[in-house]
Specification:
Length: 124
């Protein structure tokens, strides 16, 4: 059997992030996301580069079909905002001083959007 790849990880992450976006709280920490991952990803840590890569993959696929960056709902435990990688992927030329405002706007777009139930249902 082939080793799971980044697409597999993105597929595993997507429903967890979608459920978080639809929840009353509307966000999920990187740590909680990792705790909810199924096999073979149960040992993935919040700072594992594959997590950021898979989140970026999800965001780019959604943006390709004019949907907001669903992964805006994934935040750090302490700051309760996405990490630098989110901003580098989603808004690469954004000045650091504007990150919080743009992120809040993106969260509002996420709340208002209708996302497909599965990542594989997105056809750019």
């Amino acid at each position: 059997m082939a080793a799971p790849d980044l697409d597999d990880l993105a597929e595993a992450i997507y429903p967890i992030v979608l459920a978080a976006a639809r929840s009353r709280r509307g966000i999920i920490t990187y740590g909680t996301l990792c705790q909810r991952l199924p096999n073979p990803w149960v040992d993935l840590a919040p700072h594992d580069p594959r997590l950021g890569q898979a989140l970026g993959l999800i965001g780019r696929r959604l943006r390709a079909v004019d949907l907001p960056w669903l992964t805006a709902v994934v935040v750090g435990q302490e700051r309760q905002e996405p990490g630098k990688g989110f901003f580098d992927d989603a808004f690469p030329k954004l000045p650091a001083a504007e990150r919080t405002r743009v992120w809040i706007d993106e969260l509002a777009r996420v709340k208002a959007a209708a996302f497909p139930e599965a990542l594989r249902d997105i056809c750019p």
